[in-house]
UniProtKB/TrEMBL annotation, chain A:
Organism: Pseudosporangium ferrugineum
Limits of the ABC transporter domain: 4-240, 260-503
GO MF term list: ATP binding; ATP hydrolysis activity
Protein name: Ribose transport system ATP-binding protein
Superkingdom of origin organism: Bacteria
Location of the protein in the cell: Cell membrane
From TrEMBL, chain B:
Membrane-topology annotation of the record: Multi-pass membrane protein
Pfam families: BPD_transp_2
Protein name: Monosaccharide ABC transporter membrane protein (CUT2 family)
Gene Ontology MF terms: transmembrane transporter activity
Annotated keywords: Cell membrane, Membrane, Transmembrane, Transmembrane helix
GO cellular component: plasma membrane
Primary subcellular site in the record, as a coarse category: membrane
Compartment(s) of residence: Cell membrane
InterPro entries assigned: ABC_transp_permease
Transmembrane segments: 25-46, 53-72, 84-117, 129-148, 168-189, 218-241, 247-268, 275-293, 299-317
């Protein structure tokens, strides 16, 4: 008897098919991994399962009966509980109150029976390794403990299915062990668990089955033990490895041949940031494109932001052209010649309400002005240059950037970066969410800029793009460098292998072989 | 008026265009309608003495609203402007002994100090603007009362009286000053690096930060400007009524200023500042009150009409949920 079945479920948003005939089955007592990169459809699927979204096609079957959840409350009442990455409990209330929220024990007179509540809460939480005083405010607990409270709460409401969305992302190793203990316990009680995570080691340690999503489709579902790591990664990231490799699939040309002996334009040494980045070191020479590879959450975006001064750094050195920057602010980073294209274009890139002109000029206003007065003539010159060079399609420089297509928005953002005449360009997913034509143009532009002597750092979840665009690829996992691909070793296969390798097997690939 | 003409010629109204048009120009249309109504139905409306009174009354609101518009343009708000006016007013009689210039400078410095505190709380400490400025909204007036011993003080100084009640080329000095400040602020928003950065911060702060703009410095400057404008309004209030009363000067003006800004078409979500719209917003609210008074309507009715206008302004300017 299947516990929960998803049968040919589709979900369409304007312009996007977020879920395309997705099917999978969760058995009682099974820990089922749900994996996929950003935009693969994981969150949409979870939202369909928990009643946030209604499927546009297909159906859900719960305990062998067709089911329909009109709201998250509805799903919860049926026994489907979700634990999110960020704990969604009430930090100012006590641990016990949080645990019993909405189902508080009462005395014979209908008043809150706090004594019983505290006693029971204490007993329940002991099983989850939480020994703290249950009268404490939840917000004063460590994140791991808070997560345990959330989990205890989820299981308490007679859950049959528990969905865990990256439950370990904020946990210490010791807490992860406790969590796994609890999961094994749930497993033996016949509760089905859907486990979303990007940490391969964890998946192989705790999960029985796996379903891999890519671009809204299920690309694989089955026993996890039967699936090699390498194959799992290649299914997640790239096209099927056995499939034909199209040479020139991307808009990238060949090598850029950054001179091997040239002094690095960007040198990062032992970059550290609390729990997220550990001793990251690499260098970029002028004219070289260095790729940062790895799965979601490996620390690629954090590395880029830390270099650009937009992510807290605990230690390490960043040097541009040999000049060291000590924990730069964004202002200092831009001045030093670092230009960062953030991953989330809408949230951190463009200013949607302003015109193309204002967006391009944003970072160079001081250069475009005298005594604080802006010269629109100078700005127009620069804007015209970059609109032509990047072929930005807008009705005029005065058009709102928010009304442009994704590709043109990205080009406006690149124009802003280039206008600062940077020495290093840090690109985080430069071709995400833009159409094929613009994609090739952006890729061609990266080549061109490298040829002009710029140092480029490229992050991309598209394995082919990363391999074809980069001269070298530095591979990250869990915030640390685990390998580097050079020369002939810069291939999709080697990249996937390095990503898939277990932590203990981490090695440098491509020196001699 | 023009909307109606447009819809008449084209039966299928282009709703999207009307919606883009309304927040921008609706306030001017409303002023036009109101003026027309008054010209036709209100006796003695079109007299110079009446217009003069209206302009003198609206001038301090315009000055405070200019600063408020800048703050709102950064997605902030400044509740402390009324208290800043009281502070400036309380300081004037204390320093008038050193000359009128000294007294004015001291009250302006008070504005700078309050602005620095507000700006630092918002930009560096990271408090929400409404909370950060609430502190000085409460404390500022208290301080003003302490400074003035809670007493009304007569202020007799010829220069100040000229500022408050004098004319230049037949137009009150107050109106000249307000007009000059409107031009200055409009110029700052449109032509300066600071103005452009301010709009970018209101539009998307993280993006502006990543672009290497000194966001904190710009934000602090915005709050300082707002407070300085409020202290100008405060000292002008003293000049006009020829006395300083810290318990009354600028009372509730933050609400009038926010209303003027919102009715003028500046969105509370930031990223846009309509300077002329703000002036028009202040004028509109003033006209509404004047019209009601002239037609012997209760103040309570006036307040309800004001409420309706604010609701309409917020409604037409609300974020379109596109995409």
């Amino acid at each position: 008897m299947a516990l929960l079945e998803v049968v040919d479920v589709s979900k369409v948003f304007p312009g996007v098919r977020a879920l395309d005939d997705v099917s999978f089955t969760l058995q009682p007592g099974e820990v089922h991994a749900l994996v996929g990169e950003n935009g693969a459809g994981k969150s949409t699927l979870i939202k369909v399962l928990t009643g946030v979204y209604q499927p546009d096609g297909g159906q859900l079957r719960y305990r062998d009966e067709p089911a329909r959840f009109d709201s998250p409350m509805d799903a919860q009442r049926a026994g489907i509980s979700t634990i999110y990455q960020e704990v969604n409990l009430i930090p100012l209330m006590s641990v016990a109150h949080n645990l019993f929220l909405g189902r508080e024990p009462r005395t014979a007179y209908g008043l809150l029976d706090e004594k019983r509540m505290f006693r029971e809460a204490h007993e329940i939480l002991l099983r989850y390794g939480v020994t703290t005083d249950v009268r404490r405010q939840l917000g004063t607990l460590a994140l791991g403990a808070q997560q345990m409270v959330a989990l205890a709460r989820a299981v308490m409401i007679d859950a049959k299915v528990v969905i865990m969305d990256e439950p370990t992302s904020s946990l210490e190793p010791r807490e992860v062990e406790t969590l796994f203990g609890v999961i094994r316990d749930l497993h033996s009680q016949g509760i089905g668990i859907i486990y979303v995570s990007h940490r391969l080691d964890e998946l192989y340690q705790i999960c029985d089955a796996v379903t891999i999503l890519r671009d809204g489709k299920v690309v694989h579902t089955g026993k996890l033990a039967d699936l090699e790591r390498l194959r799992l990664v290649s299914l997640m990231l790239g096209r099927d490895m056995s499939a034909v490799r199209h040479e020139g699939f991307t808009g990238f040309g060949g090598d850029h041949g950054g001179a091997e002996d040239a002094a690095p334009v960007l040198k990062v040494t032992d970059l550290n940031s609390r729990r997220k980045l550990h001793d990251i070191s690499f260098a970029v020479r002028p004219g070289e494109v260095v790729g940062l590879g790895g799965l979601l959450g490996a620390g690629r975006s954090e590395t880029i932001k830390a270099i650009g001064g937009a992510y807290p750094v605990d230690g390490g050195e960043i040097a541009v052209d040999g000049k060291a920057l000590n924990r730069p602010t964004t202002v200092q980073a831009v001045k030093a010649g670092i230009a960062v294209q953030p991953e989330d274009r809408k949230a951190e890139g463009i200013v949607a309400g302003l015109s193309v002109r204002e967006n391009i000029a944003l970072a160079i206003l001081p250069r475009m002005s005298k005594l604080g007065l802006v010269s629109d003539r100078k700005i127009d010159e620069v804007v015209r240059t970059y609109m032509t060079r990047l072929r930005i399609k807008a009705s005029s420089p005065d058009q709102r950037v928010g009304d442009l297509s994704g590709g043109n928005q990205q080009k406006v953002l690149l124009a802003r970066l280039l206008a600062t005449q940077p020495k290093v360009l840090l690109l985080d997913e430069p071709t995400r969410g833009i159409d094929v034509g613009a994609k090739a143009e952006v890729q061609g532009l990266i080549d061109e800029l490298a040829a002009e002597g710029l140092g480029v750092v490229l992050v991309s979840s598209d394995a082919e793009e990363l391999v074809e665009g980069s001269d070298r690829v530095v591979v990250l996992r869990d915030g640390a460098v685990v390998g580097e691909l050079r020369g002939d070793a810069v291939t999709t296969e080697a990249l996937l292998e390095t990503i898939a390798a277990a932590a203990v097997e981490a090695k440098e690939v491509g020196n001699d072989d | 008026m023009t909307t109606e003409a447009a819809t008449a010629t084209r039966p299928a109204i282009d709703l999207a265009r009307v919606r883009a048009w309304l927040p921008k120009y609706g306030v001017y249309v409303a002023i036009g309608v109101l003026v027309l109504y008054n010209v036709l139905f209100t006796p003695n409306f079109l007299t110079w003495s009446n217009l003069r009174i209206q302009l003198i009354q609206v001038a301090p609101i315009v000055i405070v609203a200019l600063g408020m518009a800048l703050v709102i343009g950064t997605e902030g708000i400044d509740l402390s402007v009324g208290s800043v006016m009281a502070l400036a007013a309380a300081l004037i009689p204390l320093y008038l002994g050193y000359g009128v210039v000294a007294a004015i400078l001291v009250s302006l410095v008070a504005g700078v100090v309050v602005g620095l505190v507000n700006g630092t709380l918002v930009a560096r400490v990271g408090l929400q603007p409404i909370v950060a400025t609430l502190a000085l909204f409460v404390g500022g007036r208290g301080l003003a009362l302490v400074i003035s011993d809670g007493q009304l003080k007569d202020v007799r100084n010829d220069d100040l009286i000229y500022l408050g009640s004098g004319d230049f080329l037949g137009i009150p000095m107050l109106v000249w000053i307000a007009a000059l400040l409107v031009l200055v602020v409009a110029f700052v928003v449109r032509r300066t690096v600071f103005g452009r950065r301010l709009l970018a911060i209101g539009g998307n702060r993280p993006a502006t930060e990543l672009a290497g703009v000194p966001v904190k410095r710009v934000l602090i400057t915005v709050y300082v400007l707002c407070s300085v404008l409020a202290s100008i309004a405060g000292l002008l209030a003293v000049a006009r009524i020829q006395s300083s009363d810290a318990s009354a000067v600028g009372l509730l003006i933050e609400l009038s200023a926010i209303t003027a800004v919102v009715v003028g078409g500046t969105p509370l979500t930031g990223g846009k500042v309509r300077v002329l719209g703000t002036v028009a917003g202040a004028l509109l609210m003033q006209l509404v009150v004047a019209t009601m008074i002239k037609h012997n309507l209760q103040p309570s009715t006036t307040e309800m009409v004001q409420a309706v206008i604010i609701l309409i302004a917020v409604y037409v300017a609300r974020e379109r949920k596109s995409r």
